[in-house]
């Protein structure tokens, strides 16, 4: 059965790549890495009821389980190539299992195909619904973006808008449905289920960003990682945080601010750039579609400090959610 | 918390490799693949209660979760280099969590270090106890061993002995304990918990084995994959199956035969070799320690047929265990 499930996924995610010498179906896949490139490799797990709500559509799970990993490659400035999938599924009737697998594979393929990412291997087991995806991307030697290169005075920027995914999750918990005809709920829930990894932005930041991370656990937590790894602090302004009109029309001001500061699952990139390069970088990123907004700067010290519209420093009690909380 | 757990694992599994440019602690690891080599990449998942019994020691889980993956590299003739770990853990008290993590990392490191395998990345989440490990190994271009190259007339061989792990699991189910002073039970249960990936054997089989697979789901099932992928059948003789004296002293003849034919979890290599090379290959493998035994041959047709000591063909009702059975 294992073999046939993976086979079914293989059919639906077929992607020809000359560097894949042996794909799904043997003890291991065999690939030929390109000469003169380094490999960026990431693995991320999604667990039902922890990383996505019970009842999430299989295709949304397929998309998102790949998206969160591609987002890691984006944050490194790497271009994606290959993925492996480890899928644990509860025992269920064959037709349910088949429908889940087909939906999962279709959602995965919708994101994989435009990026020419090949699914080269996998494993299916029975267990609680748990999905681990490992991805591999290429980056020129020494060019990977890291969390550790920020300098005091660098400007902090973030792509897209913040807080939409957390707001979408809140709406789902209140019983909202994506198809109920409310454009705002649809937008916010789609931002939760179908995040867009900022791959082209990541490539454009090579040689220009001094540090980069993707916003998976919330801006405060993730910018906090840049601070720790760079041995610096950061100061950001709440009024500068990019927020979608859909978010602002759906929640009160304090909720919007908290979603933008501490909500997870946005998968935008947060990065630092020397002040002299900011205008050029913003102009280039705007042409790539999602744009980037300056939200603060790196300073001597430690930790992230947040200033409100009145110039008051906020108590940053909410520091993203903890996977073991 | 996620960050600190992985950090704790990092400390206990430290392994210096010059080709690891960036290890655990960023959005992705960065490695420099060696020029002129292909990469073999595998991922395997272990779920508590499915792949190992409840109550299995953390260090045994750590060892085995890596061993089953290194066994996949062995079956490809690849030499191991890097691993990533995705670990889902039930919510529990901090000290329990810490003890599990430390034990897991120690068992993992015991197997990783002699092979100079570096743990380069990971993800920890809460959920049912589920461990996915992805491994990467090197193999010269075109030299990977596959399941598909066997030819009619090739001899079928297997390393080590078969059936020990399944017998060990049976003993555990009957309430046996590894420390109860019975040397046979200890041996068989250790074979279940601490399988030895046949890496040096895999390397020695390059250019000589026509097909190779590791015995994870049982000989009949796994040799069956070689048959399917090579478009052939296989005939094996029960009296030729290598069985340990510990196994033979612990169970009746029919149980021993069934464990050897259909028991999973041995992680020996089953491979095919042209008849003219068998003596040379057996002699070389004997020097590597585990040896290899000829158990039958590849024939025109399909499927695995089994002949008993009286020359009668057996009904192969037991075809390994099914992960979704």
TrEMBL record, chains A, B:
Organism whose genome encodes this protein: Dyella kyungheensis
Pathway listed: Cofactor biosynthesis; thiamine diphosphate biosynthesis; thiamine diphosphate from thiamine phosphate: step 1/1
An example molecular function term from Gene Ontology annotations: thiamine-phosphate kinase activity
Limits of the PurM-like N-terminal domain: 25-139
Positions with a binding annotation for Mg(2+) 2: 44, 72
Domain of life, per lineage: Bacteria
Domain called PurM-like C-terminal: residue spans: 151-307
UniProt-listed Enzyme Commission number(s): 2.7.4.16
Family stated for the protein in its record: Belongs to the thiamine-monophosphate kinase family.
Catalytic reactions of this protein: thiamine phosphate + ATP = thiamine diphosphate + ADP
Chain sites annotated for binding Mg(2+) 5: 217
Residues that bind Mg(2+) 1: 44, 123
Binding locations of substrate: 51, 265, 321
Protein name as annotated: Thiamine-monophosphate kinase
The gene coding this protein: thiL
């Amino acid at each position: 059965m294992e073999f046939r499930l993976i086979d079914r996924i293989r059919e639906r995610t077929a992607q020809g790549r000359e560097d894949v010498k042996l794909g799904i179906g043997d003890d291991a896949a065999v690939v030929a890495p390109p000469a003169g490139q380094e490999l960026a490799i990431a693995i991320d797990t999604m667990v039902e009821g922890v990383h996505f709500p019970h009842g999430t559509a299989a295709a949304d799970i397929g998309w998102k389980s790949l998206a969160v990993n591609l987002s890691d490659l984006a944050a490194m400035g790497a271009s994606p190539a290959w993925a492996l999938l480890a899928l644990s599924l509860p025992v269920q009737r064959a037709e349910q299992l088949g429908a889940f697998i087909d939906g999962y594979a279709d959602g995965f393929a919708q994101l994989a195909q435009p990026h020419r990412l090949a699914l080269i291997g996998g494993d299916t087991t029975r267990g609680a619904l748990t999905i681990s995806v490992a991805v591999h991307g290429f980056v020129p030697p020494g060019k990977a973006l890291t969390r550790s290169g920020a300098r005091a005075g660098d400007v902090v920027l973030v792509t897209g808008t913040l807080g939409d995914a957390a707001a979408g999750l809140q709406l789902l918990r209140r019983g909202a449905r994506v198809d109920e005809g409310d454009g705002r709920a649809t937008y916010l829930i789609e931002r939760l289920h179908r995040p867009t990894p900022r791959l082209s932005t990541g490539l454009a930041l090579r040689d220009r960003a001094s540090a980069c991370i993707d916003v998976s656990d919330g801006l405060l937590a993730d910018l906090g990682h840049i601070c720790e790894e760079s041995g610096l602090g950061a100061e950001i302004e709440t009024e500068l945080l990019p927020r979608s009109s859909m978010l602002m029309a759906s929640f009160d001001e304090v909720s919007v601010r908290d979603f933008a500061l501490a909500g997870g699952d946005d998968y935008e990139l947060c990065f630092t750039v020397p002040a002299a390069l900011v205008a050029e970088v913003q102009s280039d990123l705007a042409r790539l579609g999602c744009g980037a907004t300056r939200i603060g700067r790196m300073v001597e010290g430690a930790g992230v400090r947040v200033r409100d519209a009145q110039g008051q420093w906020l108590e940053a009690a909410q520091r993203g959610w903890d996977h073991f909380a």
